[in-house]
Write a structure and sequence with these properties.
- The chain is of the alpha+beta class and 241 residues long.
- The protein has one domain: CNF1/YfiH-like putative cysteine hydrolases (4-Layer Sandwich), CATH 3.60.140.
- 24% of the residues lie in helices and 24% in strands.
- It has 6 helices and 13 strands.
- It has helices spanning 35-49, 120-124, 127-139, 163-171, 189-199, 224-227; strands at residues 3-4, 15-20, 67-69, 83-86, 93-97, 101-107, 112-118, 146-150, 160-161, 178-181, 184-187, 207-209, 233-239.
- β6 (101-107) and β7 (112-118) form a beta hairpin.
- The mean pLDDT is 96.
Length: 241
Amino acid sequence: MKFYHSNILNNFADLKHAFTTRDSGNLAFHVGDDELSVQEYHELLAQELEYEKNSLIYMNQIHSDIVHIVKDEGFNTPPTCDALVTNKPNTPLMVMVADCSPILFYDNEKKVIAAAHAGRAGAFKNIINNVVQTMQSAFGTKVENLHVSIGATIGVCCYEVGSEIYKEAKGLGLEYAMQKREDSFYLDINKILLSQLSACGINSENIGFLNECTCCNTQHYFSYRAEAKTGRFAGVIMLNQ
């Protein structure tokens, strides 16, 4: 099972995290794969990262800006949202993607973690701001203590969108993240996310991007844009006891 770690989050001994890859297997139950196979990949990942599989919390992701504070959910009761926040130890959070951005947050002072899913809709709705505000209001997080890592996502090289998306972006003041090549428009999601993280007051040295395009690198990642029917890789983060 192959996965990689963030240089931003690797500095903390009380934190466990990983971004999986195509070689880690499909972790999503909703894309038509055999359920037993998906369960096996989850078991393998839990063994590799040393957590109890049934303690993992993932999401029914709906391309929203909804942030959910973890209560008594478990592996078989995923909440419907696009971001999870908790201060509970030994409670891994997972975000699944196949072109969208998997975002992991850590407040090393208050010991709070979050996992968020940001595609075009999440970026346009500024789910990042909702995550930061939730961590602040519910747990007393200060932005100077936040560390954020963003995994592989579809790049501006491949993310072609229609003129209606350009108009929507322009209306939201996000035209800085659009490129025009001949008669086509291309969207840079990571550029939006970086701007939003900075606007929240997060220090640039505490923000890390993998900067690999999922659509260009289908040998390593699942890509909905490149493959249509495909699996999901994931970002996982957990506080150690």
